[in-house]
Amino acid sequence: MTSSTITIPAKDGGSFTAYVAKPAGTAPAPAIVVIQEIFGVNAVMRDICDWLAGEGFVAICPDLFWRIEPGIDITDQSKAEWDKAFSLFTAFDRDKGMDDIEATRAVAATMEGTNGKVGAVGYCLGGHMAYRTAAETAVDASVGYYGVGLQDVLDKAAGIRKPLMLHVAEKDEFAPAEAQAKVKEGLAGNALVTIHTYPGQGHAFARVGGAHYDKDSADLANGRTLAFFKTHLA
To answer: What's the pTM?
Structure first.
């Protein structure tokens, strides 16, 4: 596995960076756009990219906060960092973020060492954006972990024409039961959507080192994610 940082031109001018992890070997591989949490392209996101590269994918994690402050790389281990993360979350323009995700997807589809197939996986804020990526871009498959605010964008569900998997934390403090029910009801008619709920789990149960990390549930979700991508990005 090798890693590097690339620069991607933005749709409306300027550019942003992305962390890239590539698998060993020279055979063309599917690409996966990794969509960040509210802590930026930090060690958790880079580790996810490295994990995916180890499973045979080219993983690309763009800096979606670059319009606010480039290079955000913080943790969930202090109140000051949480305060910073929530301020970034509030300031983040999701429509422009979608432009940056689409720009990343387009680069991933033609990057040397890739086979043209591109998936997306996102966490928390990124889980929300992964849902929108499925609905608004030409991505081949998308996975969202504990996405927040999905009940507010169900009007976009008609655009989902490629497979989407959602991992839902039953006790997610940022996605209450009522919101989860609305999402399941709103997506029930789309055979391309698969929703897995993890009983008793809180938000970010798959974030290694996080307060709610649960290895068994994380391993189950990650195994499902890998199987999903290996099926739909083959």
So the answer is: 0.97
What SS3 class is residue 40? Answer: strand
- Please confirm, yes or no, whether 203 is among the known catalytic residues: yes
Catalytic, out of 76, 100, 140, 172: 172
Biggest distance spanned by C-alpha atoms of the chain: 48
Residue-wise pLDDT tens digits, 81-125: 999 999 999 999 999 999 999 999 999 999 999 999 999 999 999
Domains of the chain with bracketed CATH: 2-232 (3.40.50.1820)
- Rounded CA gap, 206 and 156, in Å? 26
* Residue from 123, 115, 157, 160 nearest 143 by CA: 123
User: Is 172 labeled as catalytic in the residue annotation?
Assistant: yes
Q: In whole angstroms, give the CA distance from residue 132 to residue 150.
A: 9
